[in-house]
Amino acid sequence: MACCRYVQGGDNGVKVNRLNPVLTGDHANTPLNVEDLSIRYQNLTEAVNLVKWPASLRSLDLTGNKIRTMNSSFSLPPKLRSLSVSTNEMTVFDNVMLPESLESINFDVNQFDVFNVNNASFAVLKTAKVLTDRIIRHTGTCNGVKDTFLGTPFTPVKGGTPSAALTHTACVVLSSVVPTGEPGGPTSKAPVVHGDVTQPPATMEESSSLGLIVDLSAAAVVVVGVVLFVVLRRRRSRRNGNFSHHHAKAVTAITSDALPDHAIAADYHNHHTHGASSHLSSHVSNGSSFQDQSTFGYVYDIRGDADLINYRIPKRELQNKTICGSGGFATVYRATFHDQVVAVKELTANMHGHAQHRHIQAFMNEIKLFATLNHNNIVRFVGVSWTTLNDLAVVSEFMSEGDLRDLLVRDAVPQHLHWFESSSMGFPSSVSKLSLAINIADAITYLHSFSPAILHRDLKSRNVLLSEAFVAKLTDFGISREASDETMTVEAGTAAWTAPEVLTNSGHYDEKADIYSLGVVLSELDTWQIPYSSGTSGSGYSNVQMAMLVAAGKLAPSFRTDCPPEVLQLARACLEMDPENRPKASKVAYELRRLHSTYLRQKGKH
Protein backbone atom coordinates (compact mmCIF):
# COMPACT_ATOMS: atom_id res chain seq x y z
CA MET A 1 0.00 0.00 0.00
CA ALA A 2 1.50 3.30 -1.03
CA CYS A 3 1.84 5.88 1.73
CA CYS A 4 1.44 9.46 0.61
CA ARG A 5 -0.05 12.12 2.88
CA TYR A 6 -0.91 15.41 1.21
CA VAL A 7 -0.98 18.70 3.06
CA GLN A 8 -2.16 21.81 1.26
CA GLY A 9 0.29 24.71 1.41
CA GLY A 10 3.44 26.11 -0.06
CA ASP A 11 3.67 28.00 -3.34
CA ASN A 12 0.49 27.30 -5.25
CA GLY A 13 0.88 23.64 -4.76
CA VAL A 14 0.84 20.51 -2.70
CA LYS A 15 3.29 19.52 -0.02
CA VAL A 16 4.00 15.85 0.50
CA ASN A 17 5.53 15.45 3.92
CA ARG A 18 5.50 11.67 3.90
CA LEU A 19 6.21 9.68 0.79
CA ASN A 20 6.59 5.98 0.13
CA PRO A 21 8.57 5.79 -3.11
CA VAL A 22 8.17 2.01 -3.49
CA LEU A 23 5.75 1.45 -6.34
CA THR A 24 3.78 -1.53 -5.12
CA GLY A 25 0.46 -2.77 -6.44
CA ASP A 26 -1.99 0.06 -6.41
CA HIS A 27 0.77 2.68 -6.21
CA ALA A 28 1.53 2.22 -9.89
CA ASN A 29 -1.61 4.19 -10.71
CA THR A 30 -0.87 7.07 -8.36
CA PRO A 31 -1.63 10.50 -9.87
CA LEU A 32 1.60 11.91 -8.41
CA ASN A 33 4.24 12.66 -11.08
CA VAL A 34 7.44 13.91 -9.48
CA GLU A 35 9.92 15.02 -12.13
CA ASP A 36 12.70 16.66 -10.12
CA LEU A 37 13.74 15.49 -6.68
CA SER A 38 16.44 16.96 -4.43
CA ILE A 39 17.40 15.29 -1.13
CA ARG A 40 20.63 17.00 -0.14
CA TYR A 41 22.63 16.74 3.10
CA GLN A 42 20.11 14.54 4.91
CA ASN A 43 22.42 11.73 6.14
CA LEU A 44 20.89 9.15 3.81
CA THR A 45 22.79 5.85 3.78
CA GLU A 46 22.94 2.63 1.75
CA ALA A 47 19.28 2.03 2.53
CA VAL A 48 18.50 4.16 -0.54
CA ASN A 49 19.46 1.12 -2.60
CA LEU A 50 16.05 -0.28 -1.67
CA VAL A 51 14.12 2.70 -2.99
CA LYS A 52 12.29 2.33 -6.26
CA TRP A 53 12.17 5.92 -7.40
CA PRO A 54 9.09 7.29 -9.18
CA ALA A 55 9.25 6.42 -12.87
CA SER A 56 8.44 10.05 -13.74
CA LEU A 57 11.76 11.38 -12.36
CA ARG A 58 13.96 13.37 -14.76
CA SER A 59 16.41 14.72 -12.19
CA LEU A 60 17.64 13.21 -8.90
CA ASP A 61 20.02 15.06 -6.56
CA LEU A 62 21.44 13.10 -3.61
CA THR A 63 24.36 15.44 -2.93
CA GLY A 64 25.99 15.50 0.49
CA ASN A 65 24.61 12.33 2.06
CA LYS A 66 26.41 9.24 3.43
CA ILE A 67 25.78 6.74 0.66
CA ARG A 68 29.07 4.82 0.68
CA THR A 69 27.84 2.05 -1.64
CA MET A 70 25.47 1.87 -4.59
CA ASN A 71 24.67 -1.55 -5.99
CA SER A 72 22.39 -3.29 -8.46
CA SER A 73 19.42 -2.84 -6.14
CA PHE A 74 19.62 0.90 -6.76
CA SER A 75 16.89 1.25 -9.38
CA LEU A 76 17.02 4.39 -11.48
CA PRO A 77 13.95 5.66 -13.36
CA PRO A 78 13.94 4.86 -17.09
CA LYS A 79 13.73 8.51 -18.20
CA LEU A 80 16.22 10.04 -15.76
CA ARG A 81 18.40 12.72 -17.33
CA SER A 82 20.45 14.03 -14.44
CA LEU A 83 21.88 12.29 -11.36
CA SER A 84 24.08 13.78 -8.64
CA VAL A 85 25.67 11.66 -5.92
CA SER A 86 28.35 14.25 -5.21
CA THR A 87 29.95 14.47 -1.76
CA ASN A 88 28.87 11.09 -0.41
CA GLU A 89 32.37 9.64 0.25
CA MET A 90 31.26 6.80 -1.98
CA THR A 91 33.76 3.99 -2.57
CA VAL A 92 31.64 1.31 -4.28
CA PHE A 93 29.59 1.69 -7.46
CA ASP A 94 28.62 -1.88 -8.26
CA ASN A 95 26.52 -2.87 -11.24
CA VAL A 96 24.13 0.08 -11.05
CA MET A 97 21.98 0.11 -14.17
CA LEU A 98 22.20 3.52 -15.83
CA PRO A 99 19.26 4.43 -18.09
CA GLU A 100 19.97 5.33 -21.70
CA SER A 101 18.31 8.70 -21.12
CA LEU A 102 21.01 9.82 -18.64
CA GLU A 103 22.78 12.97 -19.83
CA SER A 104 24.72 14.03 -16.73
CA ILE A 105 26.06 12.27 -13.63
CA ASN A 106 28.00 14.03 -10.87
CA PHE A 107 30.46 11.88 -8.87
CA ASP A 108 32.35 14.86 -7.39
CA VAL A 109 34.08 14.36 -3.99
CA ASN A 110 33.92 10.55 -3.99
CA GLN A 111 36.86 8.11 -4.10
CA PHE A 112 36.01 4.82 -5.80
CA ASP A 113 37.78 1.51 -5.24
CA VAL A 114 35.09 -0.58 -6.93
CA PHE A 115 33.45 0.55 -10.15
CA ASN A 116 31.58 -2.26 -11.89
CA VAL A 117 29.16 -1.56 -14.74
CA ASN A 118 27.63 -3.69 -17.44
CA ASN A 119 28.21 -2.96 -21.10
CA ALA A 120 24.96 -1.02 -21.49
CA SER A 121 25.74 1.27 -18.55
CA PHE A 122 29.30 1.71 -19.80
CA ALA A 123 27.91 2.94 -23.12
CA VAL A 124 25.92 5.54 -21.18
CA LEU A 125 29.08 6.69 -19.35
CA LYS A 126 30.83 7.13 -22.68
CA THR A 127 28.23 9.61 -23.91
CA ALA A 128 27.00 11.35 -20.73
CA LYS A 129 28.70 14.22 -18.93
CA VAL A 130 30.64 12.59 -16.09
CA LEU A 131 31.61 15.19 -13.49
CA THR A 132 34.16 14.40 -10.81
CA ASP A 133 37.27 16.02 -9.38
CA ARG A 134 38.97 12.66 -8.78
CA ILE A 135 39.98 9.82 -11.07
CA ILE A 136 37.63 6.85 -10.95
CA ARG A 137 39.54 3.56 -10.68
CA HIS A 138 38.42 -0.02 -10.23
CA THR A 139 41.06 -1.63 -8.02
CA GLY A 140 39.20 -4.80 -7.01
CA THR A 141 38.77 -8.08 -8.86
CA CYS A 142 37.35 -7.54 -12.35
CA ASN A 143 35.15 -10.31 -13.74
CA GLY A 144 35.06 -8.62 -17.10
CA VAL A 145 37.27 -6.22 -19.02
CA LYS A 146 38.74 -2.99 -17.71
CA ASP A 147 37.99 -0.12 -20.04
CA THR A 148 38.34 3.65 -19.89
CA PHE A 149 35.98 6.56 -20.35
CA LEU A 150 36.52 10.31 -20.24
CA GLY A 151 35.12 12.71 -17.68
CA THR A 152 34.01 16.28 -18.34
CA PRO A 153 36.68 18.90 -17.58
CA PHE A 154 35.95 21.42 -14.85
CA THR A 155 35.93 24.96 -16.19
CA PRO A 156 38.76 26.91 -14.50
CA VAL A 157 38.41 29.89 -12.22
CA LYS A 158 39.23 33.23 -13.85
CA GLY A 159 42.84 33.31 -14.96
CA GLY A 160 43.28 29.56 -14.61
CA THR A 161 44.24 27.01 -17.22
CA PRO A 162 41.51 24.73 -18.57
CA SER A 163 41.88 21.29 -17.03
CA ALA A 164 42.25 18.20 -19.18
CA ALA A 165 39.48 15.62 -19.14
CA LEU A 166 40.18 12.93 -16.55
CA THR A 167 40.48 9.36 -17.81
CA HIS A 168 38.51 6.93 -15.68
CA THR A 169 38.66 3.13 -15.50
CA ALA A 170 35.70 0.82 -15.03
CA CYS A 171 35.31 -2.93 -14.88
CA VAL A 172 32.88 -3.70 -17.69
CA VAL A 173 31.04 -6.97 -17.13
CA LEU A 174 28.50 -8.81 -19.24
CA SER A 175 24.93 -8.08 -18.25
CA SER A 176 24.47 -11.66 -17.04
CA VAL A 177 27.65 -11.75 -14.94
CA VAL A 178 27.40 -11.09 -11.21
CA PRO A 179 30.57 -9.51 -9.76
CA THR A 180 32.04 -11.69 -7.04
CA GLY A 181 33.68 -10.57 -3.86
CA GLU A 182 31.91 -7.22 -4.08
CA PRO A 183 28.72 -6.05 -2.41
CA GLY A 184 25.38 -6.20 -4.09
CA GLY A 185 24.93 -8.67 -6.92
CA PRO A 186 21.63 -8.70 -8.77
CA THR A 187 19.98 -10.90 -6.17
CA SER A 188 21.44 -9.19 -3.13
CA LYS A 189 19.52 -6.73 -1.05
CA ALA A 190 20.85 -3.75 0.84
CA PRO A 191 20.58 -4.02 4.62
CA VAL A 192 17.72 -2.37 6.43
CA VAL A 193 18.97 0.15 8.94
CA HIS A 194 17.44 0.49 12.38
CA GLY A 195 19.09 3.24 14.35
CA ASP A 196 22.77 2.34 14.55
CA VAL A 197 22.20 -1.40 14.10
CA THR A 198 22.37 -3.10 10.72
CA GLN A 199 19.74 -5.78 10.29
CA PRO A 200 19.95 -8.76 7.92
CA PRO A 201 18.50 -8.28 4.45
CA ALA A 202 14.80 -8.84 4.06
CA THR A 203 13.51 -11.93 2.35
CA MET A 204 11.97 -11.71 -1.09
CA GLU A 205 8.47 -11.83 0.40
CA GLU A 206 9.37 -9.16 2.92
CA SER A 207 10.96 -6.91 0.35
CA SER A 208 8.02 -7.14 -2.02
CA SER A 209 5.83 -5.39 0.51
CA LEU A 210 8.52 -3.22 2.06
CA GLY A 211 7.47 0.42 2.51
CA LEU A 212 9.98 3.20 2.93
CA ILE A 213 8.32 5.75 5.19
CA VAL A 214 10.00 9.05 4.74
CA ASP A 215 10.29 12.14 6.96
CA LEU A 216 13.30 14.32 6.25
CA SER A 217 12.25 16.94 8.75
CA ALA A 218 13.58 14.56 11.40
CA ALA A 219 16.45 13.40 9.16
CA ALA A 220 16.07 9.90 10.58
CA VAL A 221 16.37 6.46 9.03
CA VAL A 222 13.60 4.17 10.23
CA VAL A 223 13.23 0.37 10.26
CA VAL A 224 11.50 0.10 6.94
CA GLY A 225 13.49 2.56 4.98
CA VAL A 226 14.95 5.91 4.20
CA VAL A 227 13.83 9.35 5.21
CA LEU A 228 12.65 11.60 2.38
CA PHE A 229 11.06 15.00 2.49
CA VAL A 230 9.72 16.37 -0.75
CA VAL A 231 8.09 19.64 -1.56
CA LEU A 232 5.90 19.50 -4.60
CA ARG A 233 4.49 22.24 -6.65
CA ARG A 234 1.33 21.51 -8.59
CA ARG A 235 1.93 22.31 -12.21
CA ARG A 236 -1.28 23.33 -13.86
CA SER A 237 -1.68 23.58 -17.59
CA ARG A 238 -4.68 24.21 -19.73
CA ARG A 239 -5.51 21.54 -22.26
CA ASN A 240 -8.52 22.21 -24.50
CA GLY A 241 -9.67 24.82 -22.02
CA ASN A 242 -9.38 22.52 -18.98
CA PHE A 243 -6.77 22.23 -16.22
CA SER A 244 -4.84 18.99 -16.13
CA HIS A 245 -5.26 17.50 -12.66
CA HIS A 246 -3.00 15.68 -10.24
CA HIS A 247 0.22 16.65 -12.01
CA ALA A 248 2.95 17.75 -9.62
CA LYS A 249 6.53 18.84 -10.00
CA ALA A 250 9.19 18.83 -7.30
CA VAL A 251 10.57 22.26 -6.52
CA THR A 252 14.29 21.76 -7.01
CA ALA A 253 16.99 22.26 -9.61
CA ILE A 254 18.84 19.72 -11.68
CA THR A 255 22.53 19.22 -11.06
CA SER A 256 24.68 22.21 -11.73
CA ASP A 257 26.24 20.88 -14.87
CA ALA A 258 23.22 19.45 -16.62
CA LEU A 259 23.47 22.15 -19.25
CA PRO A 260 26.19 22.06 -21.91
CA ASP A 261 29.21 24.29 -21.45
CA HIS A 262 29.58 27.08 -23.98
CA ALA A 263 32.76 28.65 -25.28
CA ILE A 264 34.47 31.02 -22.88
CA ALA A 265 34.27 34.64 -23.98
CA ALA A 266 37.49 35.93 -25.52
CA ASP A 267 37.56 39.16 -23.58
CA TYR A 268 35.21 39.35 -20.60
CA HIS A 269 36.58 42.66 -19.41
CA ASN A 270 35.01 44.43 -22.38
CA HIS A 271 31.78 44.29 -20.42
CA HIS A 272 33.33 46.26 -17.57
CA THR A 273 34.26 49.22 -19.76
CA HIS A 274 31.41 49.58 -22.21
CA GLY A 275 28.17 48.05 -23.34
CA ALA A 276 27.44 46.30 -20.07
CA SER A 277 23.82 47.27 -20.08
CA SER A 278 23.12 46.22 -23.64
CA HIS A 279 25.16 43.06 -23.11
CA LEU A 280 22.99 42.11 -20.16
CA SER A 281 19.86 42.75 -22.15
CA SER A 282 21.02 40.53 -25.00
CA HIS A 283 21.86 37.69 -22.67
CA VAL A 284 18.57 37.86 -20.85
CA SER A 285 16.71 37.68 -24.12
CA ASN A 286 18.97 35.00 -25.53
CA GLY A 287 18.57 33.07 -22.30
CA SER A 288 15.34 31.68 -23.63
CA SER A 289 17.43 29.22 -25.59
CA PHE A 290 17.95 27.38 -22.32
CA GLN A 291 14.27 27.04 -21.68
CA ASP A 292 13.96 23.50 -22.98
CA GLN A 293 17.07 22.32 -21.13
CA SER A 294 16.54 23.99 -17.75
CA THR A 295 14.34 22.38 -15.15
CA PHE A 296 12.06 25.39 -14.89
CA GLY A 297 12.69 27.07 -18.24
CA TYR A 298 14.47 30.10 -16.77
CA VAL A 299 14.41 33.14 -19.02
CA TYR A 300 18.10 33.59 -18.17
CA ASP A 301 20.13 30.64 -16.89
CA ILE A 302 23.55 31.44 -15.48
CA ARG A 303 24.77 27.87 -16.00
CA GLY A 304 24.89 28.40 -19.74
CA ASP A 305 26.39 31.90 -19.70
CA ALA A 306 29.69 31.73 -21.57
CA ASP A 307 30.85 35.03 -20.08
CA LEU A 308 30.52 33.86 -16.48
CA ILE A 309 31.82 30.31 -16.87
CA ASN A 310 35.37 31.59 -16.45
CA TYR A 311 34.37 33.16 -13.13
CA ARG A 312 32.89 30.00 -11.63
CA ILE A 313 34.45 29.10 -8.28
CA PRO A 314 34.11 25.52 -6.95
CA LYS A 315 32.36 25.42 -3.59
CA ARG A 316 35.28 23.58 -2.04
CA GLU A 317 37.55 26.58 -2.70
CA LEU A 318 35.44 28.83 -0.47
CA GLN A 319 36.91 28.06 2.93
CA ASN A 320 36.30 29.14 6.56
CA LYS A 321 32.73 30.32 6.00
CA THR A 322 31.10 32.20 8.87
CA ILE A 323 27.67 33.82 8.75
CA CYS A 324 27.61 37.62 8.64
CA GLY A 325 23.89 38.07 8.13
CA SER A 326 20.82 36.83 6.33
CA GLY A 327 17.89 38.27 4.42
CA GLY A 328 14.66 37.09 2.92
CA PHE A 329 16.14 34.48 0.61
CA ALA A 330 19.92 34.70 0.95
CA THR A 331 22.62 34.35 3.59
CA VAL A 332 25.88 36.32 3.56
CA TYR A 333 29.09 34.63 4.71
CA ARG A 334 32.61 35.77 5.36
CA ALA A 335 34.98 33.29 3.68
CA THR A 336 38.45 32.90 2.25
CA PHE A 337 39.25 32.22 -1.39
CA HIS A 338 42.90 31.64 -2.26
CA ASP A 339 43.99 33.51 0.90
CA GLN A 340 41.71 36.43 0.02
CA VAL A 341 38.89 37.37 2.38
CA VAL A 342 35.64 37.50 0.44
CA ALA A 343 31.91 37.84 1.01
CA VAL A 344 29.65 35.04 -0.19
CA LYS A 345 25.96 35.76 -0.74
CA GLU A 346 24.25 32.38 -1.09
CA LEU A 347 20.66 31.42 -1.70
CA THR A 348 19.07 30.08 1.45
CA ALA A 349 17.27 26.79 0.99
CA ASN A 350 14.04 26.51 2.88
CA MET A 351 13.26 23.67 5.27
CA HIS A 352 12.70 21.40 2.30
CA GLY A 353 16.21 21.91 0.92
CA HIS A 354 15.55 24.13 -2.07
CA ALA A 355 15.09 27.77 -3.02
CA GLN A 356 12.01 29.14 -4.71
CA HIS A 357 12.05 29.37 -8.48
CA ARG A 358 11.41 33.13 -8.50
CA HIS A 359 14.27 33.72 -6.06
CA ILE A 360 16.65 31.69 -8.22
CA GLN A 361 15.67 33.64 -11.34
CA ALA A 362 15.97 37.01 -9.57
CA PHE A 363 19.35 36.07 -8.10
CA MET A 364 20.72 34.94 -11.47
CA ASN A 365 19.65 38.26 -12.98
CA GLU A 366 21.29 40.14 -10.10
CA ILE A 367 24.57 38.27 -10.55
CA LYS A 368 24.55 38.86 -14.29
CA LEU A 369 24.19 42.60 -13.83
CA PHE A 370 26.65 42.76 -10.93
CA ALA A 371 29.32 40.97 -12.98
CA THR A 372 29.23 43.68 -15.65
CA LEU A 373 29.97 46.53 -13.24
CA ASN A 374 33.45 47.88 -12.55
CA HIS A 375 33.80 51.03 -10.46
CA ASN A 376 35.71 52.05 -7.34
CA ASN A 377 32.44 52.75 -5.53
CA ILE A 378 30.68 49.52 -6.53
CA VAL A 379 31.49 46.43 -4.46
CA ARG A 380 33.87 44.35 -6.59
CA PHE A 381 32.60 41.17 -8.21
CA VAL A 382 34.92 38.17 -7.65
CA GLY A 383 33.02 35.18 -9.00
CA VAL A 384 30.02 32.91 -8.89
CA SER A 385 29.62 29.47 -7.33
CA TRP A 386 27.07 26.69 -7.37
CA THR A 387 26.64 22.96 -7.00
CA THR A 388 23.01 23.23 -8.02
CA LEU A 389 20.93 26.35 -8.44
CA ASN A 390 19.59 25.79 -4.92
CA ASP A 391 22.96 26.86 -3.46
CA LEU A 392 23.81 29.50 -6.05
CA ALA A 393 26.17 32.13 -4.61
CA VAL A 394 27.88 35.31 -5.72
CA VAL A 395 31.37 36.05 -4.38
CA SER A 396 32.48 39.64 -3.88
CA GLU A 397 35.08 41.65 -2.03
CA PHE A 398 34.66 41.68 1.74
CA MET A 399 33.76 45.07 3.20
CA SER A 400 35.19 44.95 6.69
CA GLU A 401 33.46 48.02 8.15
CA GLY A 402 29.90 46.88 7.52
CA ASP A 403 27.19 49.13 6.13
CA LEU A 404 26.48 52.83 6.44
CA ARG A 405 23.35 52.28 8.56
CA ASP A 406 25.33 50.47 11.25
CA LEU A 407 28.04 53.13 11.14
CA LEU A 408 25.49 55.88 11.74
CA VAL A 409 23.91 53.93 14.59
CA ARG A 410 27.31 53.46 16.27
CA ASP A 411 28.16 57.12 15.84
CA ALA A 412 24.76 58.56 16.78
CA VAL A 413 25.80 59.31 20.37
CA PRO A 414 29.53 60.16 20.14
CA GLN A 415 29.03 61.92 16.78
CA HIS A 416 32.65 61.75 15.68
CA LEU A 417 31.59 61.87 12.03
CA HIS A 418 30.95 65.35 10.59
CA TRP A 419 30.29 66.81 7.16
CA PHE A 420 33.76 68.13 6.47
CA GLU A 421 36.01 66.16 8.78
CA SER A 422 35.95 63.66 11.59
CA SER A 423 37.46 63.60 15.03
CA SER A 424 40.51 61.41 15.46
CA MET A 425 38.50 58.80 17.34
CA GLY A 426 37.44 55.86 15.21
CA PHE A 427 37.83 57.32 11.70
CA PRO A 428 40.71 58.24 9.40
CA SER A 429 41.09 62.01 9.13
CA SER A 430 40.13 61.94 5.44
CA VAL A 431 36.74 60.39 6.17
CA SER A 432 33.72 62.66 6.51
CA LYS A 433 30.04 62.66 5.74
CA LEU A 434 30.91 64.59 2.60
CA SER A 435 33.46 62.01 1.42
CA LEU A 436 30.90 59.25 1.89
CA ALA A 437 28.25 61.25 0.01
CA ILE A 438 30.69 61.81 -2.86
CA ASN A 439 31.39 58.06 -3.03
CA ILE A 440 27.67 57.28 -3.25
CA ALA A 441 26.97 59.98 -5.83
CA ASP A 442 29.89 58.78 -7.97
CA ALA A 443 28.50 55.23 -7.94
CA ILE A 444 25.03 56.42 -9.00
CA THR A 445 26.59 58.59 -11.71
CA TYR A 446 28.38 55.51 -13.05
CA LEU A 447 25.18 53.45 -13.14
CA HIS A 448 23.24 56.20 -14.86
CA SER A 449 25.99 56.69 -17.46
CA PHE A 450 25.02 53.48 -19.27
CA SER A 451 22.69 53.59 -22.24
CA PRO A 452 20.01 52.88 -21.26
CA ALA A 453 20.76 53.93 -17.69
CA ILE A 454 21.00 51.28 -14.99
CA LEU A 455 18.82 52.15 -12.03
CA HIS A 456 19.72 50.88 -8.60
CA ARG A 457 16.12 51.16 -7.34
CA ASP A 458 17.00 50.28 -3.74
CA LEU A 459 19.44 52.98 -2.65
CA LYS A 460 19.52 53.26 1.14
CA SER A 461 22.12 53.24 3.90
CA ARG A 462 21.88 49.45 4.33
CA ASN A 463 23.01 49.01 0.74
CA VAL A 464 26.09 51.19 1.15
CA LEU A 465 29.04 49.14 2.40
CA LEU A 466 32.31 50.45 3.82
CA SER A 467 35.82 49.25 3.14
CA GLU A 468 38.61 49.13 5.69
CA ALA A 469 39.54 52.68 4.62
CA PHE A 470 35.87 53.78 4.96
CA VAL A 471 35.34 54.11 1.23
CA ALA A 472 31.62 53.77 0.51
CA LYS A 473 30.53 51.27 -2.15
CA LEU A 474 27.08 50.32 -3.42
CA THR A 475 25.82 46.76 -3.20
CA ASP A 476 22.60 44.75 -3.57
CA PHE A 477 21.53 44.96 -7.18
CA GLY A 478 18.71 42.49 -6.63
CA ILE A 479 16.03 44.77 -8.06
CA SER A 480 18.22 46.94 -10.30
CA ARG A 481 17.08 47.22 -13.89
CA GLU A 482 17.65 49.20 -17.03
CA ALA A 483 15.66 52.40 -17.40
CA SER A 484 13.80 50.86 -20.36
CA ASP A 485 11.98 48.71 -17.79
CA GLU A 486 10.25 51.65 -16.22
CA THR A 487 7.78 50.11 -13.81
CA MET A 488 8.32 49.15 -10.22
CA THR A 489 5.99 47.97 -7.51
CA VAL A 490 5.83 49.64 -4.11
CA GLU A 491 7.20 46.45 -2.57
CA ALA A 492 10.50 46.93 -4.39
CA GLY A 493 12.99 48.81 -2.23
CA THR A 494 11.96 50.38 1.05
CA ALA A 495 9.16 52.92 1.45
CA ALA A 496 11.17 55.53 3.38
CA TRP A 497 13.65 55.86 0.49
CA THR A 498 11.15 55.47 -2.35
CA ALA A 499 10.34 58.37 -4.67
CA PRO A 500 6.74 59.71 -4.69
CA GLU A 501 6.19 58.74 -8.34
CA VAL A 502 6.99 55.13 -7.47
CA LEU A 503 4.60 55.17 -4.52
CA THR A 504 1.67 56.16 -6.72
CA ASN A 505 -0.40 53.60 -8.55
CA SER A 506 1.23 54.31 -11.91
CA GLY A 507 4.67 53.24 -10.73
CA HIS A 508 6.34 54.79 -13.81
CA TYR A 509 9.74 56.27 -13.13
CA ASP A 510 13.24 56.87 -14.49
CA GLU A 511 16.70 57.44 -13.03
CA LYS A 512 15.41 60.46 -11.10
CA ALA A 513 13.88 57.95 -8.64
CA ASP A 514 17.45 57.08 -7.59
CA ILE A 515 18.15 60.80 -7.12
CA TYR A 516 15.26 61.06 -4.65
CA SER A 517 16.70 58.10 -2.72
CA LEU A 518 20.08 59.83 -2.73
CA GLY A 519 18.44 62.86 -1.11
CA VAL A 520 17.05 60.61 1.62
CA VAL A 521 20.53 59.16 2.23
CA LEU A 522 21.88 62.72 2.58
CA SER A 523 19.25 63.22 5.29
CA GLU A 524 20.45 60.04 7.01
CA LEU A 525 24.03 61.28 6.92
CA ASP A 526 22.99 64.64 8.36
CA THR A 527 20.76 63.38 11.18
CA TRP A 528 22.25 59.91 11.85
CA GLN A 529 18.61 58.73 11.82
CA ILE A 530 16.38 56.64 9.58
CA PRO A 531 13.93 59.04 7.92
CA TYR A 532 10.53 59.37 9.60
CA SER A 533 11.70 57.14 12.46
CA SER A 534 9.96 59.37 15.04
CA GLY A 535 6.58 60.71 13.99
CA THR A 536 4.16 62.77 16.03
CA SER A 537 3.20 59.72 18.06
CA GLY A 538 6.80 59.11 18.97
CA SER A 539 6.72 55.64 17.48
CA GLY A 540 7.16 56.57 13.81
CA TYR A 541 4.90 56.14 10.81
CA SER A 542 3.66 52.89 9.39
CA ASN A 543 4.70 52.10 5.83
CA VAL A 544 1.17 52.82 4.62
CA GLN A 545 1.01 56.19 6.39
CA MET A 546 4.47 57.08 5.18
CA ALA A 547 3.72 56.16 1.57
CA MET A 548 0.48 58.16 1.50
CA LEU A 549 2.05 61.28 3.02
CA VAL A 550 5.18 61.19 0.84
CA ALA A 551 3.17 60.57 -2.34
CA ALA A 552 0.96 63.56 -1.45
CA GLY A 553 3.96 65.80 -0.79
CA LYS A 554 3.04 66.20 2.88
CA LEU A 555 6.08 64.41 4.31
CA ALA A 556 9.76 64.84 3.53
CA PRO A 557 13.01 63.87 5.28
CA SER A 558 14.24 66.30 7.91
CA PHE A 559 17.66 67.90 8.39
CA ARG A 560 19.50 69.35 11.36
CA THR A 561 19.64 73.08 11.89
CA ASP A 562 23.43 72.97 11.58
CA CYS A 563 23.40 71.19 8.22
CA PRO A 564 25.72 73.05 5.81
CA PRO A 565 23.48 75.25 3.61
CA GLU A 566 25.08 73.96 0.39
CA VAL A 567 24.32 70.36 1.40
CA LEU A 568 20.78 71.26 2.46
CA GLN A 569 20.07 73.04 -0.82
CA LEU A 570 21.39 70.11 -2.87
CA ALA A 571 19.50 67.54 -0.79
CA ARG A 572 16.21 69.43 -1.14
CA ALA A 573 16.74 69.60 -4.89
CA CYS A 574 17.12 65.81 -4.90
CA LEU A 575 13.88 65.53 -2.92
CA GLU A 576 11.74 67.61 -5.29
CA MET A 577 8.27 66.16 -5.87
CA ASP A 578 8.56 66.66 -9.62
CA PRO A 579 11.25 64.31 -10.98
CA GLU A 580 12.06 66.79 -13.75
CA ASN A 581 13.23 69.30 -11.14
CA ARG A 582 15.73 66.92 -9.57
CA PRO A 583 19.37 67.20 -10.67
CA LYS A 584 21.22 64.47 -12.51
CA ALA A 585 23.56 62.25 -10.52
CA SER A 586 26.57 63.78 -12.25
CA LYS A 587 25.43 67.25 -11.12
CA VAL A 588 25.06 66.04 -7.52
CA ALA A 589 28.52 64.46 -7.60
CA TYR A 590 30.01 67.63 -9.09
CA GLU A 591 28.44 69.94 -6.49
CA LEU A 592 29.52 67.72 -3.59
CA ARG A 593 33.06 67.51 -4.91
CA ARG A 594 33.17 71.28 -5.50
CA LEU A 595 32.02 71.86 -1.92
CA HIS A 596 34.73 69.53 -0.65
CA SER A 597 37.41 71.30 -2.69
CA THR A 598 36.26 74.69 -1.41
CA TYR A 599 36.52 73.46 2.16
CA LEU A 600 40.04 72.12 1.59
CA ARG A 601 41.18 75.41 0.03
CA GLN A 602 39.79 77.41 2.92
CA LYS A 603 41.33 75.03 5.41
CA GLY A 604 44.72 75.43 3.70
CA LYS A 605 44.63 79.20 4.17
CA HIS A 606 44.46 78.87 7.94
UniProtKB/TrEMBL annotation:
SUPFAM superfamilies: Outer arm dynein light chain 1, Protein kinase-like (PK-like)
Domain Protein kinase span(s) in chain numbering: 318-599
Gene3D superfamilies registered for this protein in UniProt: Phosphorylase Kinase, domain 1, Ribonuclease Inhibitor, Transferase(Phosphotransferase) domain 1
Chain ranges passing through the membrane: 210-232
GO molecular function: ATP binding; protein serine/threonine kinase activity
InterPro entries: Kinase-like_dom_sf, Leu-rich_rpt, LRR_dom_sf, Prot_kinase_dom, Ser/Thr_kinase_AS, Ser/Thr_Kinases-Pseudokinases
Name of the protein this chain belongs to: TKL protein kinase, variant 1
Organism this protein belongs to: Aphanomyces invadans
